[in-house]
Structure formats: structure tokens, C-alpha cells
């Protein structure tokens, strides 16, 4: 049976200290690209993302939006180059939130340098223009949100991840009301390591300054893309590469479940490769799909084991040749 390879890129909330460190010391291609990207950021912002990610300095500073935005992109792009070096290329790619910018660079929609500057500027503008907020992943059917005034009056649903899992964003001052409601009803939730309310009206104040930045930069996109590309925030509108596209991908609600289904070919063996730092998209796919010909793979994880995960992927691809 033929195979359909899908690369998936995640966004904010998937980061953690030392992400990709085991791969950095084990895989020369990953190390090369991490160093190359970091050298560019040193010239551009005057500091090393690498030092914040892997050094002692990062213990205090690595969770700021600017640094996590850049670090997630660096790790995802560098892992992709490892797969390319081994002759593994996708038939399609799926981007989620910030991961859509990584996907656009990988897919030659925009140049690498333009993408890196856009990511930095987006984080910088949101930090300056928007109030801090909270995001929670809730382990329950999204109908809970619509039936609970404590949730729908105080937060916005920003993502349907899979059955019995959705994500909300809310202002910091609503934290007590929402936490008390969830605890009182014994509903399991996971706080995300995100300081701003992505995919909600809580970042609307950043739209105008970001659009002005894009207009000044005169960003152009290449129509000769390499792979099919699917957007989790613009499920049916990816061909609309207007000036607002790179804002919409972090502002519009996420529909990962329906997006990744578009990338599936039921007549093929589908190998879904999560290139994000935490493997959260591969985990979601395990809940979304229950079919033998759909195989989610994780590379990076907070628990390490990247080389082992790569070996498993290589063996699977060798079997499918």
C-alpha cells in the first residue's frame, strides 16, 4: 500500500526548558540548524535564544513570549531539516497556531529570514499591545463550555482538539471563578504555559500594529509551494494569502480535528509526524483516529528519547517502501 506522509507543527504551549537538547547532542544536522538560526537571532535581537533555551540564564527568562515564539520555531525547523537530510519529505503539512508560520517557511511560502522576523515581531507586538491572559486545556466534551455560564461568560473557547478535550482562554482576573468551577465539578484541566490569550479577542489589540508592520515589510509569498498545506485556523481558506493571513492563524479559533482529517488519504498508509516540541498533536491524533492505516509519530518529548523515536519512524518508513 502507498504511503501518505503528513508533517504537523504545533504552537504556543508546547514549549519547555531544554526541548530538543538530547537531539542537539546526538544529531549533527539538528545541531547545525539550531546554531545557524540562533546566530541570526543574535544579530537581529541582540541575544541568544539558544542560551535561554539550554543555558542557566533560561531558568528565569525562557518563558517570555518573544523567546518561546522563537525557540519553538527553531526547534521545529531544525527537526524538519533532520528528516529532509534522511530523505523524508511530506505529501502535506498541517500547521497549528505559531506552527503555521513554521509550516509556511518549510513549504517555501515565505523566505526563512522573513518568517523569523515575522515571528519575532508578532511576539513583540502582542507583548506590547495585549494584556496577559490564561489558557487551559479541559478534559471534557466542549458542550460543557456552552452549558456552563462560569465558562461562557468568563472565557472563550479557542480550540476543539478532539472528543472530550477543548481549550479556553480568559483574562487573568477571571482565573479564580474558572478554577473554582472546574474544581467544584471535579473536571480535569491542564494549564498551558502561555501568557496571552491566543485565538481569542484577548489579543485583538495586536492586530492593527501587526498589520502595519507587515505592510511596511511588504511581505510576499511564493505561490510555487512544495507541499499541500492545511491551516487549523483557516480550514477552508488557506488559499487566501492576504496581508491578514499571518494574523488570522494566531487569532482565529483552532479546528485541528477537521483540519488533520483533510490531510488523510484513506487509500494509503498515513504516517502523521509531529515535529512540535511536545508531541501533543500526535497524541491528539491517537484520540481522533482509530484506524490501522493511520499512524501518529512523535519525535520530541519532555521525557527525551528523540533518537529512539526517530529510529522507530525510520523503520516504519522502510517497511512501507
From TrEMBL:
Which InterPro entries would you find in this protein's record?
Answer: Ac_transferase_dom_sf, Acyl_transferase_dom, Acyl_Trfase/lysoPLipase, Polyketide_Synthase
Judging by the UniProt lineage, the source's domain of life is Bacteria
Keyword list (alphabetical) reads: Acyltransferase, Transferase
Domain Malonyl-CoA:ACP transacylase (MAT): start-end pairs = 8-309
Q: Which SUPFAM superfamilies match?
A: FabD/lysophospholipase-like (SSF52151)
- Secretion signal, residue range per the UniProt entry: none
GO MF annotations, alphabetized: acyltransferase activity
Q: Which Gene3D superfamilies does the UniProt record give?
A: Malonyl-Coenzyme A Acyl Carrier Protein, domain 2
Q: What is this protein called?
A: Bacillaene synthase trans-acting acyltransferase
